[in-house]
Design brief:
The protein is α+β, with helices and mostly antiparallel strands. It has two domains: about 1-310, Penicillin-binding protein 2a (Domain 2) (Alpha-Beta Complex), CATH 3.90.1310.10; about 310-680, Beta-lactamase (3-Layer(aba) Sandwich). About 35% of the residues lie in helices and about 15% in strands. It contains 24 helices and 21 strands. Strands 2, 3, 4, 5, 10, 16 and 17 form a seven-stranded mixed beta sheet that branches. It has a five-stranded antiparallel beta sheet with strand order 12-11-21-20-19. β11 (about 345-350) and β12 form a beta hairpin. α12 (about 310-330) packs antiparallel against α24. The protein is elongated. The protein starts with a helix and ends in a 16-residue tail after the last helix.
């Protein structure tokens, strides 16, 4: 709606600019011939309409720390009136392109023919507007045939522009490219002056300045600057529009074809707020390019500042902890140890009462400030630093799924909080030689590794020790529809509503399996159901979903939309333009009995005898958590590790979900959550704990 309003308001400006452009066109057309050359009197002046780029809004964290700002820069602009009317235009342009070749300078040019022989059209690389401009250019050049071949067009333009015969075809093509850009400003009067170079360095400016090219001016501009090395995956970046993007943005007057737009992360998600409205300036210069007068027709309006929900200090703690944890796992002296082959990881933290995301980190990462400079190196990294595992990767959750089963079983009447199930080691519900699960013989992990069982335990105790047998029993007896719907209402396999693109994953059920596999492989068996009950089978969720799920557990069933948006303020930070509102996506009516059962169980996970006790021993704040270990599809590789928690347990302020690829165990990832909690609650730096003491999760 806001864009529509801005679009309507811009119609008047667009018409005005068109009228001015038409006037300038008529004036110029009377003074200069189409091919250049010609002479003008000393009193001749040229009036141009210059589009003045608006500064982009800043991105700040929830505490007002600037994450992305604008750095002052300079662009080199060619005034087409002055340069085309000067003597020796071709020689100036030749010197310019050859100097750029020598210095390795990439300049702006959109002539849709390849720069090397054999010359071919590259129109498919440009959006529809640029393609249309090319057709207008052909018409302007005395009606050149639109079906003319690329080599013939180069040959024709060599003659039209009077390029020396001794120039190579490649050099002629480069000069023709600049002549094309200059001519476009004449046949399309509404186009702004030709920006030859963006963000030119002092060295480049000095070298080009020595050429004394008529009509070359320096224009003040801005470029994006990152004030942090963290949050690369969510900050995003800006870049030139693709053809597809232009088809969308061209409906909005404030966008020119050469506008920089958000391409990923916050820069893309909040583009409508960050992008400003360009201004228009009328400049009058004499024939040597000296400015005679300048007048703003419309002042540029800077974009709004976006304050996100991220706490950059907490984000830094999370990223550093994630990196240290995964590198420590990989640096194990025993290459065959669980977790020694650990790869990527992610962690998300949010406020469970609002859905505001405090941390969203993916490992490995990169420095956003050097993204373009180091792009090829980043791309070659086998751990895929560009992959945002927090939002895009989907994983089997492992035992962090088990609270779903507690809620489903108690609130469907299958069990109550006091119901006990005896762990017999090998799960055989029929207690007969014809065990229906004999093919894969499901067992409790404790029994498999240590040879003993957990005995008779209730739901809370089963969560504490993560007893697979208990949850096999629930999975065997419960209706699949009840289990599946409970997971759905808790947000698993559902969109979190976050502003950035995310994977939705899927829950393990008959429909999912049929979609994933063909024929008999897509048949749902009871064995699939008991594996689903412990977080295996075809469950695939993102770390963002797991954090939103943990938040729904913390609020006893309230599932809020996850959000990165805190508020929008004016560029001078004086006016509040928009503030994020808490949005309830769904509510699962969790009984007090079911809530207390999983609440007590998750609290016991971090207490003596729990699977995360070694990490949270003597912790001053009560943490409700759950570890998870999930088998991977990679044969011979360590299991994945997961951990979710909320704290303080009785009045949750923060929820965390951590996931590590091939981390070995869920307890291996719990230390990352503790580091985040230490920072959030300002707890003193913990003593070095052995995160591997109790790994039965």
């Amino acid at each position: 709606m806001e864009r529509i309003t801005r679009f309507r308001a811009g119609i008047v400006l667009l018409l005005f600019a068109a009228l001015i452009g038409f006037y300038v066109y008529r004036l110029y057309d009377e003074q200069i011939i189409k091919t250049g050359g010609g002479s003008v009197s000393n009193e001749t002046t040229f009036t141009t309409l210059t589009r003045v780029k608006a500064a982009r809004g800043e991105i700040l964290d929830r505490n007002g720390n600037v994450l992305v700002s604008n750095r002052a820069s300079y662009d080199l602009v060619l005034n087409h009136y002055v340069l085309v009317s000067a003597k020796g235009t071709n020689d100036y342009l030749y010197q310019l392109v050859k100097l750029c070749q020598e210095l390795g300078i990439e300049y702006n040019e959109h002539f849709p023919i390849s720069r090397e022989r054999p010359f071919t059209y590259t129109l498919e690389d440009y959006n529809s507007a640029y393609q249309g401009y090319f057709q207008k250019y052909l018409e302007y050049m005395d009606g050149l045939d639109s079906d003319i071949t690329a080599p013939l067009l180069i040959e024709t333009l060599r003659e039209v522009y009077g390029l020396p015969a001794e120039w190579s075809d490649e050099d002629a093509r480069l000069v023709i490219g600049l002549r094309y850009e200059l001519a476009l400003r004449n046949c399309v009067p509404s186009m702004a002056n030709y920006v030859f170079l963006n963000d030119v360095s002092q060295e480049e400016m000095a070298a080009i300045g020595e050429l004394n090219i008529p009509g070359m001016n320096v224009e003040a501009s801005t470029v994006r600057e990152y004030q942090t090395k963290y949050a690369a995956h969510i900050l995003g970046f800006v870049g030139a529009m693709s053809a597809e993007q232009w088809e969308y943005y061209k409906q909005f007057e404030e966008y020119s074809m050469d506008a920089q737009v958000g391409q990923a992360g916050f820069e893309a998600a909040f583009e409508e707020y960050l992008h400003g409205v360009d201004g228009w300036r009328m400049d009058t210069v004499n024939q040597d390019g000296t400015l005679v007068s300048s007048e703003y027709l419309v002042e540029p309006k800077a974009g709004s500042n976006v304050q996100v929900t991220i706490d950059i200090n907490l984000q830094a703690v999370a990223e550093d902890a994630l990196a240290e944890n995964m590198e420590n796992l990989r640096n194990n002296e025993n290459p065959n140890a669980d977790g020694a082959d650990a790869e990527g990881a992610a962690v998300v933290a949010m406020d469970p009462q609002t859905g505001q995301v405090l941390v969203c980190a993916s490992y490995p990462t990169y420095d956003p400030a050097t993204y373009f400079e180091n792009y090829n190196e980043i791309l070659k990294d086998p751990l895929k630093p560009l992959y945002n595992r927090a939002l895009d990767a989907t994983y089997p959750p492992g035992s962090v799924y088990k609270p779903v089963m507690v809620i489903a079983a108690i609130d469907s009447g299958l069990i109550n909080s006091a119901t006990t199930i005896e762990d017999k080691g090998i799960f055989d519900p029929d207690n007969s030689p014809n065990n229906k699960y004999k093919k894969f013989e499901p067992t409790c992990l404790t029994y498999s590794l240590l040879g003993y069982t957990h005995g008779s335990i209730n739901a809370a105790q089963a969560l504490k020790v993560s007893c697979n047998y208990f949850f096999y029993e629930l999975g065997d007896r419960i209706k699949l529809s009840i289990m599946d719907n409970t997971g759905k209402m808790l947000g698993l396999g559902e969109s979190t509503g976050i502003e950035l693109p995310e994977s939705t994953g899927h829950r393990a059920n008959a429909e999912t399996k049929a979609e994933l596999f063909d024929g008999e492989n897509g048949i749902w068996y009871q064995g699939d159901q008991i594996l689903a009950a412990i977080g295996q089978s075809e469950h695939r969720f993102t770390p963002m979903q797991l954090c939103a799920y943990a938040s729904t557990l913390a609020t006893q069933g309230d599932r809020y939309r996850a959000t990165f948006l805190n508020r929008i303020v004016s560029s001078d930070n004086r006016s509040l333009l928009k503030e994020s509102q808490v949005e309830l996506l769904s509510h699962l009516d969790i009984s007090d009995e079911a809530y207390m059962s999983y609440f007590q169980g998750m609290c016991m996970v971090t207490q003596s005898g729990g699977t995360a006790y070694t990490v949270f021993r003597d912790y001053p704040i009560q943490v409700a958590g759950k570890t998870g270990t999930a088998e991977t599809d990679k044969e011979g590789k360590s299991d994945n590790g997961s951990f979710i928690c909320f704290a303080p347990a009785d009045d949750p302020e923060i929820t965390i979900a951590v996931y590590g690829e091939q981390a070995g165990h869920g307890s291996s990832m719990a230390g990352v959550a503790r580091d985040i909690l230490d920072s959030y609650f300002e707890v003193g730096k913990p003593a070095d704990v052995n995160a591997y003491e109790n790994q039965l999760s």
